[in-house]
Design brief:
mainly beta, about 0% helix, four-stranded antiparallel beta sheet, seven-stranded mixed beta sheet
């Protein structure tokens, strides 16, 4: 079992920055593929950024060059640094841990981008 708790969301102006954190407990996430997903009202949940156990990362095209996913194995944490935020980035952001057929989700953290 993996428990995931996201934090760091909030209200930010367009062009601003936020760092989301995902605290994992129950087991080490070092072997897990970790991801950040988001879901805006009326839209499907989409993958934003992925971090594999081997150190590879990938991003949806709309955030490339602006968002950075990272993990701290010692702290069992996952992060998403978000820069140059746009109104279309507003959503509930979720952390996901996956290993084989097992997937675990956090409860989400709201990101609002508005002036």
């Amino acid at each position: 079992q993996v428990q995931l708790v996201e934090s760091g969301g909030g209200l930010v102006q367009p062009g601003g920055s936020l760092t989301l954190s995902c605290a994992a407990s129950g087991t080490t996430i070092s072997l897990f593929t970790m991801g950040w997903y988001r879901q805006a009202p009326g839209k499907q949940r989409e993958l934003v950024a992925l971090s594999t156990s081997g150190g590879s990362t990938d991003y949806v095209d709309s955030v490339k060059g602006r968002f950075t996913i990272s993990r701290d194995g010692a702290k069992n944490m996952l992060y998403l640094q978000m820069n140059s935020l746009k109104p279309e980035d507003a959503a509930v952001y979720y952390c996901k841990a996956q290993l084989g057929g097992r997937a675990y989700w956090g409860q989400g953290t709201q990101v609002t981008v508005s002036s």
